[in-house]
Design a protein that fits this description.
By secondary structure, this protein is of the alpha+beta class. It contains 4 helices and 14 strands.
Length: 319
């Protein structure tokens, strides 16, 4: 009996279970199909997307056009691309636009002396700038020193008042050891003046100044400078042999009628430069001498109008 009950039970249970499962599956499928229709997305609004894209493109073109107009009204502009040595991005600098306010111009340097009439008046590689600096040192030296009697000399003025007449190297002697250079400068007015200065070791070591020009009517149309021996006397005869070769100079004043001056020294004759009423000559000695330079002057026709050998006031022998 138990066996039958179990068999019938199983048969009925199995038949009912299969019928109910089919109905449940069919209902589930129908419900899922209805849900899928409910959640189906709406159609893509293609026309609206096209209109929005066209509007965005027109907006970008308008912005680009405005930028081009802005560049067109900017003045000429220079772009400089500077590379970064460290490999970083390049830097773009823009030059143009309003100019920054310029700094006030610095005052010009003080005027210096006038250049000599001929290049040969600057010897031994001395430039006008070097001669001008030496003249400045000489004038400063004069302002800072007084005469042996303790009296301050009249102010010699400023460098722009002068003209460089002669500049050449100097050779020291027992009284003034050390080599250097001579600077000779003259001033035409209001009072004629002349100074001879020696520059050594970067500074002025002595200065000789005179004023008034040629005041001796008997000196003739050419007047050798009374202190010109400073330029051509290397040492006194009692101080031993000269240091050779020796650069020498000779200066003095000339009248308007003098057209040519020659200076003979140690067997050689040189042409002197004529410079605004002055003459200046320079040369090199290869041997010691005992006679001073011989100076001759000529007029425009070549006639000799002066000879230092005939000048009673001119020292013809060296001391």
């Amino acid at each position: 009996m138990n066996g039958r009950d179990n068999t019938q039970g199983d048969g009925q249970g199995g038949g009912q279970g299969d019928g109910q499962g089919d109905e449940f599956e069919f209902g589930l499928r129908e419900w899922m199909a209805q849900g899928a229709e409910a959640v189906q997305p709406a159609a893509v609004p293609y026309p609206a997307i096209v209109r929005q894209g066209r509007a965005e493109r027109r907006r970008r073109l308008a912005v680009a056009g405005a930028a081009l107009v802005a560049l067109a009204v900017v003045p000429v502009t220079a772009l400089a691309f500077t590379g970064n040595a460290g490999g970083g991005p390049a830097v773009v600098s823009v030059a143009g636009g309003p100019t920054p306010s310029a700094a006030p111009p610095s005052p010009p340097p003080p005027a210096g002396p006038t250049a000599p009439a001929t290049p040969g008046q600057l010897a031994d590689g001395i430039t006008l700038q070097v001669a001008a600096a030496g003249l400045e040192q000489c004038l400063d030296y004069d302002r800072q020193h007084v005469t042996p009697s303790g009296i301050q000399r009249p102010d010699l003025g400023v460098a722009s008042d002068y003209r460089i007449l002669l500049a050449h190297r100097s050779t020291g002697n027992d009284n003034t050891p050390g080599d250097g250079r001579f600077i000779v400068a003259v001033k035409d007015g209001p009072t004629q003046a002349r100074l001879i200065c020696n520059i050594k070791d970067g500074g002025a070591s002595g200065i000789n100044a005179s004023s008034g020009g040629n005041s001796d009517p008997e000196s003739g149309s050419v007047a050798p400078d009374i202190n010109g021996g400073k330029l051509y006397l290397q040492r006194l005869s009692s101080e031993g042999p000269w240091k050779l070769p020796y650069r020498w100079g000779s200066i003095g004043t000339v009248d308007a009628g003098v057209a040519r001056v020659t200076v003979s020294y140690g067997g050689a004759t040189v042409e002197a430069a004529l410079d605004h009423g002055w003459f200046a000559a320079t040369g090199v000695l290869d041997e010691a001498v005992t006679k001073a330079p011989r100076i001759k002057g000529y007029d425009a026709q070549g006639k000799q109008v002066y000879d230092s050998d005939q000048d009673k006031g001119y020292d013809k022998l060296l001391p």
